[in-house]
Amino acid sequence: MRILRAIFGHGSGRIGGVIVGVYLLIAVLGMLGLTPHNPITQYRIDRLHAPNGAYWMGTDLFGRDVASRLMAGVGQSFTVAFFSVAFATLAGTVLGLAAAWLGRRWDGVLMRLMDVLLAFPAILLALLIVTVAGPGTWTSVVAIGIVYTPIFTRVVRGPALSLKAREFVDAARTFGSSSSYIVTRHLLLNLVAPLTVQVTLALAWALLTEAGLSFLGLGTQPPAASLGLMLSDSRNLMETAPWLMIFPGLAIMISILGFNLLGDALRDILDPKMRRAPA
Amino acid sequence: MNYLMRRLTAFPLVLLGVSILVFVAIRMVPGDSITAMLGTEAGLLTPAQRDSLAAYFGIDQPWFVQYWRWIGGILHGNLGISVTYGRPVLDVILEHFPLTLELAVLSMIIALIVGLPAGIFAATHNEKPSDLGVRIVAMVGQSTPSFVLGLLIIYTLSAGFGVLPAMGEFAPLWQDPLRNLSQLILPAITLGFAFAASVTRISRSAMLDVLSDDYVRTARSKGASARSVIWRHALPNALIPVVTLSGIEFGYLLGGAVIVEQIYALPGLGRMVLDAIQQRDYALVQGSVLFIALNFMIVNLLVDLAYVALDPRIRLGEQ
């Protein structure tokens, strides 16, 4: 509750929070199929209609309702983004804690492995993974998840290393606490703040990467709706039907903006060091 | 020197890891490369023909023998033959690389020319309406995917002014500089926009950080002019994070801007890799991914070196 109040007391947090909230609502409606029309039904008579009362955002080349497809697409993009970030958070936290806690050789091996993954530009690594596993929704989840795992590993390892050296960890050990208790109770709980910030910003990147993969035809496969795919399909009809490009384009942009604003606000709120210079 | 030595010794190790990862990943792609190469005609091969083809390409050997041969080849500058181009992989890569390099350089120039002054301006007008304006534009810029911006630019140009970006046959810089620039300026703006937004944000926060430091206060109290405080005292130190960020972004761009090259139909490295993936040209995918990762690692190493060179605290702390 306190964190929600803090977010809404923060200028950009308020805007980001509202944007993310609205998107979550649209995503849930889109996933439950509660859209004005069926997103894949083709109303052949109404092909390429400009936005009007019946089709709020117009129709596409096949007579499908753009607004409904957009809602389904937001649901799709958010599903991929949430699962991939959950994957990266979980894997990164486990690896980061393991590297910090086990130390020495384990630390060296794990962090060099993360360096290998970080040696690839993100989209290229995602492309490579999709090539191996074949395009699709769950491949995107795994690909984006793997791409962001090293970042979470680093975010966790650094603070975990310094926490490990603190007195309260020594004290807990003296009292006979088990390693697993110390790691989950004393290290993990203290890492919640940096992880929360990182998760929010990673959701913005994940949305961007998902849209990029779908735009290249390597993410969500047709006829399912996805914002990147809609945007890619709009290219040839740009001049006759600009609404096909404008709505999905804005939808992607505003969703990323929302998570960026929220992430910035969370960083201001949770990280006192950053308070001096909010960027 | 400890930190740098560690980075330098880790470099070959990480590169080895990268080469193994790329190699294994390509081997994990479903289907064998002979079928991928010949398509439906592969069904017409007799088992004996298939075996002899496998022997010819060396894929009848266990993976570590294949890997050893591949690495041996690379050390002699031989990355294999591209099936789609029918030419050495290295030649194909080097043919596509100049465009990508030029695009990356142009985008960085745009980002620095726009982002740095904007960031300094915002920092020196902290909390004023003009600062808020710059911050809003930068936030929106950072949240705009290159493909959305690229399509918007093309749409605005064609719908508003009836002009289309110069596509068609790509003119290399040394053959037709004017035509080359006219082809690359819009893609460079597309990539440079978000880049400039990041530069603005980082230079603003670095500048604010430095401006509240003790030495800047000392300079002010000694009566140094506002201009001198900003340009002589604050800026050099505020530049350190800007250099780091620009270097990393530049490294990303050297990997080829897959999507922007696709939108503007530019024959750069990114689009080449995408085509190679779609056409299952494994030698080309393998070689170019390794090439890109190596570039990225070298740029990151240079950024680290620059960081050490620029930050006196690190430099002097070592002595």
Describe how the helices and strands are arranged.
The complex is a heterodimer of chains A (279) and B (319).
Chain A: H1 2-8, H2 11-32, H3 66-102, H4 104-118, H5 122-133, H6 137-164, H7 167-174, H8 179-190, H9 192-215, H10 227-233, H11 243-270
Chain B: H1 2-27, H2 33-38, H3 47-57, H4 63-75, H5 89-124, H6 129-143, H7 146-161, H8 177-211, H9 214-221, H10 226-254, H11 258-263, H12 269-278, H13 282-310, H14 312-318
Helix pairs in contact in B: 1-13, 5-6, 5-8, 5-10, 5-13, 6-8, 7-8, 8-10, 9-10, 10-13, 12-13
Membrane topology (chain A): Multi-pass membrane protein
Family (chain A): Belongs to the binding-protein-dependent transport system permease family.
Subcellular location (chain A): Cell membrane
Structural summary, described in words:
Chain A: This is Peptide/nickel transport system permease protein. Chain A: Keywords: Cell membrane, Membrane, Transmembrane, Transmembrane helix, Transport. Chain A: Its main location: membrane. The complex is a heterodimer of chains A (279) and B (319). Chain A has 279 residues and is an all-alpha fold. Chain A has a single domain, classed as MetI-like (MetI-like fold, Orthogonal Bundle). Helix content of chain A is 72%, strand content 0%. Chain A is built from 11 helices and no strands. Chain A has helices at residues 2-8, 11-32, 66-102, 104-118, 122-133, 137-164, 167-174, 179-190, 192-215, 227-233, 243-270. Chain A is elongated and about 75 Å long. Mean pLDDT of chain A is 87; it is low at 274-279. By secondary structure, chain B is mainly α. In chain B, helix 5 packs across helix 8 (177-211) and helix 7 (146-161) packs across helix 8 (177-211). Chain B has a domain at 89-310: MetI-like (MetI-like fold), CATH 1.10.3720. The longest helix of chain B is centred in the middle third of the chain and has 36 residues, at 89-124. Chain B is globular, with a radius of gyration of 25 Å. Chain B has 14 helices and no strands. The model of chain B has no long low-confidence stretch (mean pLDDT 85). The relative contact order of chain B is 0.14. Chains A and B meet through helix 4, helix 5, helix 9 and helix 11 of A and helix 1, helix 6, helix 7, helix 8 and helix 11 of B.
